[in-house]
């Protein structure tokens, strides 16, 4: 009988070690949005560990938070260039993963967004591709926007982070310009 107690204790210990600890629920999107900080040409969001630094351009008033939809457009920025080749738009968005129960992967999310953009008249330039942004794994897709002007490209980058679908929505004259913008303006801590 004396050997049963140590075995029982060992089994209980193993059971608790195997069962994952309860994860803290994601922070409310309104709080995440409100905690984002702009200081000069730098936007930081500590919850996602992201910094957006603009060398040119300015932050715009396009950001919003929807607690009902559990999503936010955390920040928007646009170039102030007059030269078409130097124009860009960049936004950081977050959607609560739990509010999107059918989404199982960043690739699936980006594919759905890409198909929606195609319905709006954009043409796929590059399908879903894994890429690292400042060391963080993302999925990227690039589309060509057909409009009355010279046209431009729009890319969506997505990763799951802290219980949210975190996305970068970037537009510029060329895919190369988009890659350059993301690599020089976005940093993760």
What does the model show?
25% of the residues lie in helices and 40% in strands. The chain has 189 residues and is of the alpha+beta class. It has a single domain, classed as Protein Transport Mog1p, Chain A (3-Layer(aba) Sandwich), CATH 3.40.1000.10. The strands form two sheets. Strands 4, 5, 6, 7, 8, 9, 10 and 11 form an eight-stranded antiparallel β-sheet that branches. The relative contact order is 0.16. The N terminus is likely disordered.
Using the CA coordinates, give the radius of gyration. 21 Å
The tally of structural domains comes to 1
**Oligomerization:** single chain
- How do the SSEs run, as a string of H and E? HHEEEEEEEHEEEEHE
Average pLDDT for all residues: 87
**Helical content class:** 10-25%
Describe the global form: globular
Determine the CATH topology.
Protein Transport Mog1p, Chain A
Number of helices: 4
User: N-to-C terminal Cα separation, in Å?
Assistant: 54 Å
**How many strand elements?**
12
The largest pleated sheet is described as:
8 strands, antiparallel
Structural class: alpha+beta
- Contiguous uncertain segments of 5+ residues: 1-21
Architecture, CATH level 2?
A: 3-Layer(aba) Sandwich
């Amino acid at each position: 009988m004396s050997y049963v107690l140590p075995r029982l204790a060992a089994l209980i210990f193993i059971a608790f070690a195997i069962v994952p600890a309860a994860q803290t629920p994601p922070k409310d999107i309104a709080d995440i949005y409100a905690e984002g900080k702009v200081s000069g040409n730098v936007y930081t969001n500590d919850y996602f560990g992201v910094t957006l630094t603009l060398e040119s351009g300015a932050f715009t008033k396009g950001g919003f938070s929807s607690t009902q939809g559990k999503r936010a457009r955390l920040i928007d920025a646009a170039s102030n260039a007059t030269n078409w080749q130097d124009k860009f738009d960049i936004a950081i968005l977050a959607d609560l993963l739990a509010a999107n129960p059918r989404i199982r992967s960043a690739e699936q999310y980006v594919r759905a967004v890409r198909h929606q953009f195609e319905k709006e008249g954009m043409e796929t330039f590059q399908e879903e591709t894994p890429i690292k942004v400042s060391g963080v794994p993302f999925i990227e897709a690039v589309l060509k926007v057909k409009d009355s002007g010279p046209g431009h490209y729009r890319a969506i980058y997505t990763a799951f982070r802290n219980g949210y679908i975190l996305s970068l929505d970037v537009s510029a004259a060329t895919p190369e310009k988009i890659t350059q913008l993301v690599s020089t303006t976005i940093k993760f801590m």
